[in-house]
Amino acid sequence: PLTTTGELITGAAAAHTAVAAFNIITLEHAEAVVAGAESVDAPVVLQVSENAVKFHDGDLLPLARAATAAAERATVPVALHLDHIQSDDLLRRAPDAGFSSVMYDASRLPYAENLAATRAAVDWVHARGLWIEAELGQVGGKNGLPPLDAHAPGARTDPDEARAFVADSGVDALAVAIGSAHAMTTRTATLDHTLLKRLSGALDVPLVLHGSSGVPDDELRAAVTGGIAKVNIGTALNIALTGAIRDFLTARPDAVDPRTYLAAGRTAMTEAVARLIGVLATPST
Ligand code: G3H
Ligand code: ZN
User: Fold this and answer.
1) For the structural domain made of 2-281, what CATH number should be given?
2) What is the mean pLDDT of residues 222-249?
3) Which InterPro entries does the UniProt record give (predicted)?
4) Would you call 127 exposed, middle or buried from its count of C-beta atoms within 10 A (0-12, 13-18, 19+)?
5) Label partner for 111 (CA 20 to 30 A): which of 30, 35, 99, 133?
6) Atom number in ligand 1 closest to CA 184
7) In angstroms, what is the span from residue 265 Cα to ligand 1's centroid?
8) What is the pLDDT of residue 152?
9) To test ligand 1's pocket by mutation, which of 5, 22, 23 has the most ligand atoms within 8 angstroms of CB?
10) pTM of the predicted protein model
11) Percentage of residues in the chain with pLDDT exceeding 90?
């Protein structure tokens, strides 16, 4: 059934585990994420990024309605989250489109502007009963830009700044920059676990890991143990989808029915979802 992101994250944080949040671009992504979560009997978040909305001609509703339908018929709890929003117009369309949460991303702005923009978004969103995540300290690799140097201090979230940001903005969760980067196609990121420990000690809101596709299994488990309560995964599904379609079309160059190769791609995504949720469910000790 359809549930709220706040409920899933609060539950995950209380149980010292993390909920997986997968970025969906097509209907097949939504179907695969739900099927994968059902196969391991785990709750899951379906998230739609501002970039995915742009891909669908700027219209939020087709994908939102598909995701809502997939969530409603699911045998596991499924929540809808609007991801990496920079547009205030898009933010204002979130509640009516069925999203229970948003990630408002003003992390590209200097601290004071990020705080002011996030505070305004928090006020608007909370007045409508939604849950809101923000980011401090940029997780690189967004919008096709090269990943920031993961070891550059500017790419990391400062714990003291984060404590003030959470208190002054009123956000419900914080995306932290601890060494991951978006859109990595190799799983070679190393996380700063010492920093994560300091962040989770300094903050009383759930922490979110972005760019998780590039993070190896052991590092993901350690991040969950270290206090990450929501794990955002996008690229890993696209690697699975595209790889399966490429293999299918290479083996069957005469294929024309999209259902044949989309089915192969969807199955590969379903398996990736189940596997990654399994990784998060067995945190390191
Ligand atoms: O917000 C979405 C995620 O951070 C996805 O990152 O595509 O690198 O897994 P990823
Ligand atoms: Zn992200």
Assistant:
1) 3.20.20.70
2) 98
3) Aldolase_TIM, Class_II_FBP_aldolase, FBA_II
4) exposed
5) 99
6) 8
7) 19
8) 56
9) 23
10) 0.96
11) 91
Q: Which residues are catalytic?
A: 83
When pLDDT is cut at 50, 70 and 90, the band that residue 138 belongs to is: confident
Answer whether 48's CB lies under 8 Å from 67's CB: yes
In terms of Cα–Cα distance, which of 271, 265, 269, 267 is closest to 249? 265
pLDDT for residue 35 is more than 80: yes
* Ligand 1 neighbour 180 (Cβ under 6 A): no
pLDDT tier at 164, thresholds 50, 70, 90: very high
- Report which protein residue has its CA nearest ligand 1's atom 6: 211
- Token pair of 136, please? 């401090």
Burial profile 168-200: b = 16 or more Cβ within 10 angstroms, e = fewer: ebbbbbbbbbbbbbbbbeeeebebbeebbebbb
What pLDDT, in 10s, does the model give residues 52-72?
999 999 999 999 999 999 999
Q: Kindly list the domain boundaries of the chain, sorted by start residue.
A: 2-281
Q: CB of 46 within 8 A of CB of 70?
A: yes
> For residue 155, what pLDDT is reported?
80
- Is the CB–ligand 1 distance for residue 140 below 6 Å? no
Q: Is the CB of 238 under 6 A from ligand 1?
A: no
Q: Which atom of ligand 1 is nearest to the CA of 214?
A: 8
The protein residue whose alpha carbon is closest to atom 4 in ligand 1 is 210
